[in-house]
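User: Watch each token:
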Amino acid sequence: MRKALTLAGTVVNVFLPGVGTLIMGKFASGSVQLGLLLALWVLKTITFGLAGWFLWPIGVAVWIWAVGGGVITYFTLPDRHHKALRY
């Protein structure tokens, strides 16, 4: 069950970074990811899109962090028949 929930969270992270991390149960990092993306969206809205040129690398980094964290969590969780992979 936990592995299926982690896989679902990873898929959600592809489209809504931070929300999938919250689904996986990682409330601290999910809140930070979601908060950063919301702050970037607000800054972009306030500056009428001009800040988007300077802030997009931060958004991409948060997206990579969210998806990568989900993938790593999925592969490090043990399942019924196998031990977890250790990196």
The chain has a mean pLDDT of 88. The chain has four helices and no strands. The chain has one domain: 2-76. The CA atoms of residues 18 and 30 lie 4 Å apart.
